[in-house]
From TrEMBL:
It comes from the Bacteria. This is Leader peptidase. Keywords: Cell membrane, Membrane, Transmembrane, Transmembrane helix. GO terms for biological process: signal peptide processing. One of its GO terms (molecular function) is aspartic-type endopeptidase activity. It comes from Terrimicrobium sacchariphilum. It holds the Pfam family A24_N_bact. Residues 12-96 form the Prepilin peptidase A24 N-terminal domain. It is found in: Cell membrane. The chain crosses the membrane at residues 6-25, 127-147, 153-174, 288-321, 333-352. Belongs to the peptidase A24 family. InterPro entries: Prepilin_IV_endopep_pep (IPR000045), Prepilin_pept_A24_N (IPR010627), Prepilin_peptidase/N-MTase (IPR050882).
Length: 368
């Protein structure tokens, strides 16, 4: 009876935590406080949601996915996160029980939150990555079983070492990818009109019929976006000849001088080529794998990176065939890392042992 109650409790707790994670997913990337307002609200009309309309899973189904006030659609993501978190909490309880299950609950909650924020915003907030790394180290000391040891000191160094290993591997991939593929130059057969227009705190770069939000371009401090024009103007001031416009994220390099972009309203003209900085992946992913290592250890780091790379490649190939009109769209890597880490939690050690047992047999070359 006691086991049944605890099993049901873990599933219900997961649904409740999933409801909280939905608030995190909505608020964190928008820099909204999780405490103010404390009550959930409709993103469309701002109506405060009463408790009886905020019951995990049940309320979304009862309201048929719409706000009771303005009748705007409520994203299916809300019920998906609640059901997913409930299922993961239940699986972690059945797999690990006490005392490890609560630690895995926290870890899985971080994975779910990071996944859905990264899918929508292409970022993983530091509160998840850096905070997750710190939580992983602390919990590994409290529960050394997370690192498959009885020694708290051993668990501390194992957690720190795994976090450093994960960070180091992806840091090398990011930096190496930046050196090899950090710029993409597009050359056009004919002149195309272009414009850079500021709108408050953001801006839009338009080339021909294609537009790109300025903050979505992968700028680093030294990176430049270069426009090779046949003529251009800055706020109505016509530039001489065929100027080459060089942008950093916050400034335009105009005749050797840095002019802040927040002092410019519009740049327009015609271009023949454009060079855009790009990243293989963001540094949020680098910090995310450190958090995964801090919770799960070095073997999980290796497994997660390999699994995420394989799954990501399969998804990318499938995307090319299933959505050809979006084959060049950005794809976040964080969800693949989260999926790889979740696979490790429930199946990874068994897969690891099976693989190396097979490779250790005569006639096989050991490779991973």
């Amino acid at each position: 009876m006691r086991e049944t109650v605890l099993t049901v409790f873990s599933a219900v707790l997961g649904a409740i935590i999933g409801s909280f994670l939905n608030a995190c997913i909505h608020r964190l990337p928008r820099n909204l406080s999780l405490d103010q307002p404390r009550r959930s609200f409709c993103p469309s009309c701002g109506k405060t949601i009463p408790w009886y309309e905020n019951l995990p899973v049940i309320s979304w189904l009862a309201l048929r996915g719409r706000c009771s006030g303005c009748h705007a659609k409520i994203s299916p993501r809300y019920i998906l996160v609640e059901i997913l978190t409930s299922g993961l909490f239940l699986a972690a309880w059945l797999t690990f029980g006490l005392p490890l299950a609560p630690a895995y609950w926290l870890f899985l909650a971080l994975l779910v939150t990071a996944t859905f924020i990264d899918i929508e915003h292409f970022i993983i907030p530091d509160v998840i990555t850096i905070g997750g790394t710190a939580a992983g180290v602390v919990l590994s000391v409290i529960l050394p079983g997370l690192m498959q040891t009885d020694s708290r000191l051993h668990a501390l160094f194992a957690s720190l070492g795994a976090a450093a290993l994960g960070y180091g591997i992806l840091w090398l991939i990011v930096e190496g990818g930046k050196l090899a593929f950090g710029r993409k130059r597009h050359v056009f057969k004919e002149e195309l009109p272009f414009s850079w227009k500021r709108d408050g705190d953001t801006a839009t770069l338009t080339v021909g019929e294609d537009s790109l939000l300025w903050h979505e371009i992968d700028f680093r401090e030294r990176d430049q976006l270069v426009i090779e024009s046949t003529g251009a103007s800055i706020d109505g001031r016509v530039l001489e000849g065929s100027p080459v416009l060089r942008f950093r994220y916050h400034v335009l390099l105009d005749e050797g001088q840095e002019k802040p972009l927040d002092q410019i309203d519009e740049i327009k003209g015609k271009l023949t080529a454009i060079t855009i900085p790009r990243e293989a992946m963001g540094f949020g992913d680098v910090k995310f794998i450190a958090a995964i290592g801090a919770f799960l250890g070095w073997q999980a780091v290796v497994f997660t990176i390999c699994a995420a790379s394989i799954i990501g490649c399969v998804a990318a190939v499938a995307g090319i065939f299933l959505a050809r009109d979006r084959s060049g769209a950005r794809v976040p890597f964080g969800p693949f890392l989260a999926l790889g880490a979740a696979l490790w939690v429930f199946f990874g050690p068994a897969i690891w042992d099976w693989y190396f047992n097979v490779m250790a047999r005569p006639g096989h070359d050991l490779a991973f």
